[in-house]
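Lecture notes, unit on protein representations.

Consider one protein chain, 216 amino acids long.
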Amino acid sequence: MSSITACLFDLDGVLVDTAKYHYIAWKRLAGELGFDFTEQDNERLKGVSRMASLDILLEIGGMTLDEDAKLALAEKKNAWYVEYISKMDESEILPGALDFIQVLKARGIKVALGSASKNAMLILNNTGLTPYFDAIIDGTKTSQAKPDPEVFTMGAHELGVQPDTCVVFEDAEAGIEAATRAGMRSVGIGSPETLGRASIVLSSLEEFTVDRLLEL
């Protein structure tokens, strides 16, 4: 195995908890459309693009709409979500995340963001995380959603490192698959049941060290 030169982080559920705001916005949309959307339903949307998420939501509600109507609903949901995340600050960085990134930087390991979110910059700026990243790949730069490896291969390219020297941090099954397809090692943040294909699974970055990372 090549030595580790870079770490690529998903945003939602790994560095910050924006999942709750996505859920509140999707639930609000479902309510407007006349059906319920549960936390269990919301699990299906993890790591999935906005339009694909809307398709799942409409399937749950037993609804079929044309493309224009779907685009309008996706915009409405996103406007609510942006309203919620505009109020975020550094207190919403998940436990251990910032400390871990700071140690990586001190050890000379490069750091990139690899997120499907088109609102990543707003979140990074509001939480004060922006300056820590050597490269930021978000939904405004990519055309393929995870499990396609595009977001991570672009990250490695921007960092000027080889994929086999990268480790991806992800909370979604699609993200772990994308990392594997990119030829990278991966750390799952969450449940071993859903993230079992990761090189290692943690409940949070709080319980991880750079020394353990270098043993992967």
